[in-house]
Amino acid sequence: MIDTPHVGLIGCGGWGKLILRDLKALGTRVTCVAPSEKSRANAVANGADLIVSTLDELPQVEGAVVATPSDSHGDVLLSLLPRNIPLFVEKPLTSDRVTAQLLARTAPDRIFVMDKWRYHAGIERIAQYARSGEIGDVLGLRLYRLGWSMTHNEVDPIWNLLPHDLSICLHVLGDVPPVTTAFADGLGPASSGLVAMLERDGGPRVVIETSAHHPVNRRSVILACTDGTVTLNGSLDEHLILRQGSPDNLNAPEIKVPFRNYMPLEAELAAFLRHLSGGPAPMSSVTEGALIVERVCDIRRMAGLPE
């Protein structure tokens, strides 16, 4: 049992500083690997206990969180593996299929992916509807992740956006079905947005629309079942909208289903810290992370984009 865990945070940029903030709020001792002047300033401002410039300087820690640019995740994780500690990496696991598969084979029980939407209370409530059958059998899942512009320059918007929706699919359906169709959305450069369809024989159909060139911001998840359709309209909402009736019933009553919203980032970090103290593993194993990377690559290839 670890009373005050000592965690390494690799990277302290725009998202890493929020991770550091929440780790400190959870009572964690944090050493930051922050090579740039800006990242060091972020580490100081958010209360890092120790700041070093390179991975080689990182002291012994009980676990590590990786928040470097997406295209560096694979190299950083491989460098950390000899430490034999649990590792929590921001999504995506990697931005290439081969390295993702290598990590899944090499450290199946020590690497976990920070799929924050799996810790969103609204997504968990939708998953409960899917698992329980309380609104019938699942017919399909529709996901929208639309907005204007991106702040991550190391990979294109599809690598940044699509893993979120694939992790929601995994959480709600317990599966990420094979890709059947994918095409660029036409709203901007081909690499900025697409529409994809996933379906396993006899299973629900999943449709994902994602774009960084959509003029209106939208984050919506819709689960359609034989006896009801439930929707999360936005990440900050504190209720779902349930249409209680079959999808062809235009008069199906609309019901608000409240839930207690909390910050998913802090929730997933708390899960990782509990794991360091002997608790269960956080959601999204490296194997699941590698599956999501594989599906992103399949979707990109089918849409005519390089993997």
TrEMBL record:
One Pfam family of this chain: GFO_IDH_MocA
Gene3D superfamilies per the UniProt record, alphabetical: Dihydrodipicolinate Reductase, domain 2 (3.30.360.10), NAD(P)-binding Rossmann-like Domain (3.40.50.720)
SUPFAM superfamilies according to UniProt: Glyceraldehyde-3-phosphate dehydrogenase-like, C-terminal domain (SSF55347), NAD(P)-binding Rossmann-fold domains (SSF51735)
Domain of life: Bacteria
Example of a GO MF term: nucleotide binding
Span of domain Gfo/Idh/MocA-like oxidoreductase N-terminal: 6-107
Transmembrane regions: none
Name under which the protein is recorded: Oxidoreductase family, NAD-binding Rossmann fold
The organism of origin for this protein: Aminobacter aminovorans (Chelatobacter heintzii)
